[in-house]
């Protein structure tokens, strides 16, 4: 029942709290709860109501909502009716075992455990959970590599050129162009998929696109994409008379799946579009140095970006002018 309710909340469906078991007043923000009177089910539901308005970017729920739903589902299945202050490290360890049994990788298992602890930390902050309960949950150590049944994905490495060429031959024109743009710019696939015609400044020899919405915008960082001659030829095929229309009408997961299907057909080791970014970064660093690679990747800290903005911009322009 609660798993269904949480899924509805995550998707934005309104819930009639009168139909919930227990006292509906417990779910109202700011309601006073008797110490120890809240169940794990109720805590999760109250947190997800909060998460709906907190984990939002540009008016849309972020992927963190989905991650919390995944982390919470096994929790409520095992201990939904347990009082929050009776939930301890051994119970959290049992939830973690269920994560591992679901086939999740070790890092995602550890992140999911941290999300459960954050859920209880939110409960402490709102006087729904005793601080001592959270303190006990902090005692559970993370899973270590090589000491757990949870698998680890291989570390990202530069993709051999012969594999890239083989995959390109299996892709549609649009997906080939996205792949090539990633190699030419070291951009994330999601960054390229957000591009519109009006975002691209074509006034100079090197085109640029300053992204207002990007992964580290909330940290005050600036993100600029640079497009040299070869990248400009690709983009020119998608420029539209409608300045606000996206250049690439494709979802990120669809692009990722297209590469996955090609690798499967070719019987090649798995890699994702993000590995292309790593491949481009390795090439840029080897040929042009660390500083140029950092600015092309958007990895500079906010204060360092302000200090070296002009120098970094010139370095990035020099790189893409040569690479394309």
Gist?
The chain is mainly α and 324 residues long.
Specify the CATH class of the largest domain.
Mainly Alpha
- The outline comes out as elongated
N-to-C span: 55 Å
Number of helices: 14
In percent terms, what proportion of residues is strand? under 5%
Major sheet attributes: 3 strands, antiparallel
- The domain count comes to 2
Describe the structure.
The protein has 324 residues and is mostly helical. It has 2 domains: 2-137, DNA polymerase, domain 1; 161-323, hpI Integrase, Chain A (Orthogonal Bundle). The chain has 14 helices and 5 strands. The chain has helices spanning 2-10, 40-54, 63-79, 89-101, 106-125, 131-137, 161-168, 173-185, 189-193, 229-236, 252-266, 273-288, 290-297, 302-323; strands at residues 56-57, 60-61, 200-201, 207-211, 223-227. The strands form 2 sheets. Strands 3-4-5 form a 3-stranded antiparallel sheet. Strands 1-2 form a two-stranded antiparallel ribbon. A hairpin with a 5-residue loop joins β3 (200-201) and β4. The termini are far apart. The model is unreliable at 15-31 and 299-311 (pLDDT under 50).
């Amino acid at each position: 029942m609660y798993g269904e309710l949480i899924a509805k909340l995550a998707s934005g469906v309104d819930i009639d709290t009168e139909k919930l078991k227990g006292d509906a007043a417990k779910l109202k923000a700011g309601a006073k709860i008797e110490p120890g009177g809240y169940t794990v089910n109720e805590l999760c539901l109250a947190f997800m109501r909060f998460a709906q308005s907190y984990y939002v970017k540009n008016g849309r729920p972020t992927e963190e909502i989905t991650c919390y739903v995944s982390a919470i589902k096994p929790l409520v299945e095992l201990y939904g009716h347990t009082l929050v202050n009776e939930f301890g490290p051994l119970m959290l360890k049992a939830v973690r075992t269920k994560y591992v049994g679901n086939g999740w990788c070790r890092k995602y298992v550890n992140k999911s455990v941290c999300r459960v602890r954050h859920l209880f930390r939110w409960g402490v902050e709102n006087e729904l959970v005793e601080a001592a309960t959270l303190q006990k949950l902090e005692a559970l150590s993370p899973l270590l590599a090589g000491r757990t049944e949870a698998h680890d994905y291989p570390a990202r490495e530069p993709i051999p050129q012969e594999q890239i060429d083989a995959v390109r031959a299996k892709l549609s024109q649009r997906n080939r162009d996205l792949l090539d743009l990633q190699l030419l710019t070291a951009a994330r696939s999601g960054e390229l998929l957000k591009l519109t015609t009006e975002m691209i400044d074509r006034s100079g020899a090197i085109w640029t696109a300053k992204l207002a919405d990007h992964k580290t915008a909330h940290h005050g960082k600036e993100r600029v994409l640079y497009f040299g001659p070869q990248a400009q030829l690709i983009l020119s095929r998608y420029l539209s008379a409608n300045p606000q229309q996206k250049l690439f009408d494709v979802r990120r997961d669809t692009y990722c799946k297209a590469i996955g299907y090609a690798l499967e057909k070719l019987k090649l080791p798995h890699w994702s579009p993000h590995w292309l970014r790593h491949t481009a970064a390795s090439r840029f660093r080897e040929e042009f140095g660390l500083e140029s690679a950092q600015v092309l990747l958007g990895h500079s800290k906010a204060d360092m970006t302000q200090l070296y903005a002009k120098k970094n911009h010139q370095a990035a322009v020099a790189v893409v002018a040569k690479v394309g």
